[in-house]
Amino acid sequence: MGIHEADTAAGTGEALENLSDEIRRFPPSPEFAVQANAKAELYERAADHEGFWAEQARALTWETPFTEVLDFSAAPRARWFADGRLNAAYNAVDRHVAAGLGDRVAIHWEGEPGDTRTITYAELQGEVSRAANALVALGVDTGDRVAIYLPMIPEAVVAMLACARIGAPHSVVFGGFSAEALHTRILDAEASLVITADGGYRRGAAAALKPAVDGALAHGDTAVRHVLVVRRTGQDVGWTPGRDVWWEESLAAAADVHEPVAVEAEHPLFILYTSGTTGKPKGIFHTTGGYLTQAAYTHRVVFDLKPETDVYWCTADVGWVTGHTYVTYGPLLNGATQLLYEGTPDTPTKGRWWELVEKYGVTILYTAPTAIRTFMKWGDGIPAAYDLSSLRLLGSVGEPINPEAWVWYRHVIGGDRTPVVDTWWQTETGGIMISPLPGVTVAKPGSAQTPLPGVRAEVVDEAGEPVGNGRGGYLVLTHPWPGMLRGIWGDEQRFKDTYWSRFPGRYFAGDGAKKDDDGDIWLLGRVDDVMNISGHRLSTTEIESALVSHPWVAEAAVVGASDPTTGQAVVAFVILRADAVERADEPGEGGDVVATLRGHVAAEIGPIAKPRSILIVAELPKTRSGKIMRRLLRDVAEQRAVGDVTTLADTSVMELIRVGLNQPGRDPM
Ligand code: PRX
To answer: Which protein residue's CA is at the shortest distance from atom 7 of ligand 1?
Structure first.
């Protein structure tokens, strides 16, 4: 299972002992509460679990209404609204146009260099229809998989919706992943077409994307027949005639009318790869009716969306689940006007985000704690130079937000006015699961607090028994929910083993959690071999496999060490092969080995996976059964006293590591 009880914060339960006395409380303001979409009675209504979700599902437009709600007879594979049929793109776009809202802005887009585009719902309908026709013309059928590897440009949203329009599940791969990572994902999903761009703008420069697609396809073993290429930067691209097609040309040749394909509610909408506890990423797949229900409902109640007046901004990249549920699907299903920004927060200045908030009058901002902590570090003076008074709600996602960052966010960005919602969920859950309801919940900085109406969660001990208030354990979800993953693409057994075997009958999230004295939930981080770097999931094993695939490396162990900005940072301990050791021993060469290995990880997975530090060691601490004791390595990585070593096979190992690290030139931290 990959859970190390002794390794976990949940195992010790200490993290919050000292905090409980100082928990601050932020009651909702009466002005906010009175206009809030969410009311306290929602919790009562959800007592009828299926009735509640059926009501939420009816907010979508169904081509064939469902009569069945939940079928969990083939647990853990759930079926929701299974006899209903609908189309995701119709729901996200066409129905708003049909309701007379075609002139409403769907997307305000701002490129990093400052170029802009404004796209109304009517225009979006035309674009998505053209793209759907173009896909069909290139041979994509309902059920075929399409890989999307794009920067944060409107075409990313258009491409996803075009796939959904023809019922072709999309698999978006984050643009920061390498050719190798892209290759594995294309292969696993057996994608027949890739949508990419020449490049995108990041940190003031054009960053190429197309070469990674060419590299991925150069393996020659994929099912890809065509690559659709959006021209964004104008940089030169390699071209394979017959295979590669310009997006602009193929859309120009396509009609702007397309009949959306109504699919069964359980038809797969997308696959999204995420890191698990093994070296192989998991293709989490979501289906149509249930996922859309949860996306629309959570987006409406958690963000209090008022589609007529709000300007909503979720800063996530479409390559992550947050970009799926809260950029593409949730807001568009609700007819929102949203901002999409291509670039990084510090380009051209560290005030870029706040300039955008002021320029577009952003009212709702949803981002990650790592960004918030970065802004804290840059100083209050930067946001203070902009008018942020349009903001009325702030959200956080991706990792636990420390109370200091929460309070700073509300104070400096939210002008002490805005509710802050700390939203816990996962790629697997499809949408937000645990979060305060703005206008209802008395917020506690640092805690995601309460399962949303319709969600049932528990914190359980080792034996699966619910823990009492004031105690820690493992977070489980006890009832099926519409947005839940339907499986791991092509690996039913792994789906069962990973999520459903540790606590039979319940979904195990992989997170440690604690209930405070009021029963509110505090997330304590992962209890498995999954790390969370800047809100992005990476697996220790995946990076270890990347390291050992290098000819110099004999063995590697990777841990996530606490990092004040990114939450966790990757620290690798590497044992070199004898010939490489000689290299490392030459003066000045040690650094070269480290730089080479960091570069190798970036090439195998992507720059986000690059270890912050690589420590060359002679031994790794292992138990008698040969399991690496990451807990001890974390102690070393975080430079604190090494904990209990009694279960080590060889207790002198930690001393060896310590001595080795103290040699000059050997500790790059
Ligand atoms: O550990 C939890 C953490 O992120 C994990 C899910 O990662 P991913 O599938 O990449 O999805 C991220 C965006 C939803 C969880 O298992 N996590 C996410 N949100 C929070 C969080 N931890 C604490 N508090 C949160 N609000």
So the answer is: 426
Show the DSSP H helices in 218-272 as ranges. Answer: 247-252
d(CA 35, CA 30): 9
Residue count (the chain): 669
**3-state SS class at 51:** helix
Which DSSP string corresponds to 21-32? GG---BPPPHHH
Task: Give the chain's radius of gyration (CA, Å).
Answer: 24
Q: What is the CA(425)–ligand 1 centre distance, in A?
A: 5
Q: Is 66 in a helix, a strand, or coil?
A: coil
Q: Which of 88, 93, 188 is nearest to 145 (CA)?
A: 188
Alpha carbon of 525 to ligand 1 centroid (Å) = 8
Least confident of 45-59, 339-353, 651-665: 651-665
Distance 3 CA to ligand 1 centre (A): 17
pTM for this model (two decimals): 0.91
Confidence of residue 14 (pLDDT cuts 50, 70, 90): very low
Q: Looking at ligand 1, which residue's alpha carbon is closest to its atom 12?
A: 398
The β-bridge relationship of strands 85-86 and 613-616 is unpaired
For the residues 331-347, what does the mean pLDDT come to? Answer: 98
Helix (H, G, I), strand (E, B) or coil at 324: helix
Beta bridge mates, 171: 147, 271
- Domain assignment present for 186: no
DSSP 646: T
Tens digit of each residue's pLDDT (9 = 90 or more) over 467-480:
999 999 999 999 99
Unique residue bearing structure tokens 């005639």: 241
Count of structural domains, the chain: 1
Are 195 and 225 within 8 A, CB to CB?
no
- Decide if 131 is inside a domain: no
Under 8 Å between Cβ of 305 and 72? no
DSSP character at residue 6: G
Residue 632: give its domain's CATH number.
3.30.300.30
SS3 state of residue 190: coil
Distance 664 CA to ligand 1 centre (A): 38
Residues 634 and 654: their CA atoms lie apart, in Å, by 12
* Domain annotation covers residue 652: yes
Q: Which residues contact 512 (CB under 8 A, 6 or more apart)?
A: 8, 9, 10, 11, 472, 473, 474, 475, 523, 524, 525, 526, 527
**What would the 3-class secondary structure string for 587-632 be?**
CCHHHHHHHHHHHHHHHHCCHHHCCCEEEECCCCCEECCCCECHHH
Tell me the residue type at 638. Answer: E
Measured CA to CA, the distance from residue 580 to residue 590 in angstroms comes to: 10
Counting ligand 1 atoms within 8 A of each CB, the residue from 318, 424, 427 with the most, and so the one to mutate, is 424
Distance from C-alpha of 289 to C-alpha of 270, rounded to nearest angstrom:
12
For residue range 368-412, list pLDDT tens digits in order: 999 999 999 999 999 999 999 999 999 999 999 999 999 999 999
Instruction: Write out the two tokens for 95.
Output: 């129905």
Q: Which domain holds residue 625?
A: 530-660
Over range 326-352, report the average pLDDT.
Answer: 98
- By the 8 A CB rule, do 548 and 574 touch? no
3-state helix, strand, coil in the chain (%, to 5): 35, 25, 45
Extract the tokens encoding 573: 């301990």
CA of 523 to the centre of ligand 1 (A): 9
Q: Which atom of ligand 1 is nearest the CA belonging to 422?
A: 26
The DSSP-derived string for 93-126 is: IIHHIIIIITTSEEEEEE-TTS-EEEEEHHHHHH
Give domain status of residue 408, yes or no.
no
